[in-house]
Design brief:
The chain is of the alpha/beta class. It has helices spanning about 25-35, 45-50, 80-85, 100-105, and strands at about 1-5, 10-15, 20, 40, 60-65, 75, 95-100, 115-120, 125-130, 140-145, 145-150, 150-160. Strands 1, 4, 5, 6, 7, 8, 10, 11 and 12 form a 9-stranded mixed beta sheet that branches. Strands 3-2-9 form a 3-stranded antiparallel beta sheet, with no helix packed on it.
């Protein structure tokens, strides 16, 4: 199973249920990587999308404790156990955990690959991703050249569980 995330230099991922920054090349990478695949997210992440609708051309699975929550064209799970049972239906290489904060923390132990867009800037934030550089079981196995979007420098990194 995969995780895909954009982080700042402090491993922050969001502020007030919004991404810290929108970088077109990162959005394109996210789209091309997850299209035709399974995306796993929390309710607040889904609600942060345009009109609160699931992503097109993907199987959307939402993990939420809210038993009243329903959304058209998404599969709803109410516990990690229920989610893991649902995910058995799919090739684990085709599953991408896309956030937010609590979903990343709950699902990281089940993931073997993390696609991280690391942005060399510190933002005001209220949610963070675990710092994979400090976790001995994770290592960088691929990295892109440093790229620039206006004055922001960033790079695409692939971490794999050792």
């Amino acid at each position: 199973m995969n995780i895909i995330v954009a982080v700042d230099r402090n491993w922050a991922i969001g502020y007030k249920n919004k991404l810290l920054v929108s970088i077109p090349a990162d959005m394109k990478f996210f789209r091309s990587t997850t299209t035709g695949k399974v995306v796993v997210m929390g309710r607040k992440t889904l609600e942060s999308f345009p009109n609160g609708l699931p992503l097109k051309n993907r199987i959307n699975i939402v993990l939420t404790a809210n038993r009243e929550f329903k959304v058209k064209d998404a599969i709803i799970c109410h516990s990690v156990e229920e989610l893991l049972e649902e995910l058995k239906k799919y090739d684990s290489d085709d599953i991408y955990v896309i956030g937010g904060d609590s979903i990343y923390h709950q699902m990281l132990p089940y993931c073997n690959v993390a696609h991280v867009t690391k942005i060399d800037h510190a933002y005001e934030a209220d949610t963070w991703f675990p710092n994979l550089d400090e976790l001995p079981e994770w290592e960088i196995t691929a990295d892109s050249e440093e790229q620039t979007y206006f004055d922001l420098e960033y790079q695409f990194l692939k971490y794999e569980r050792k």
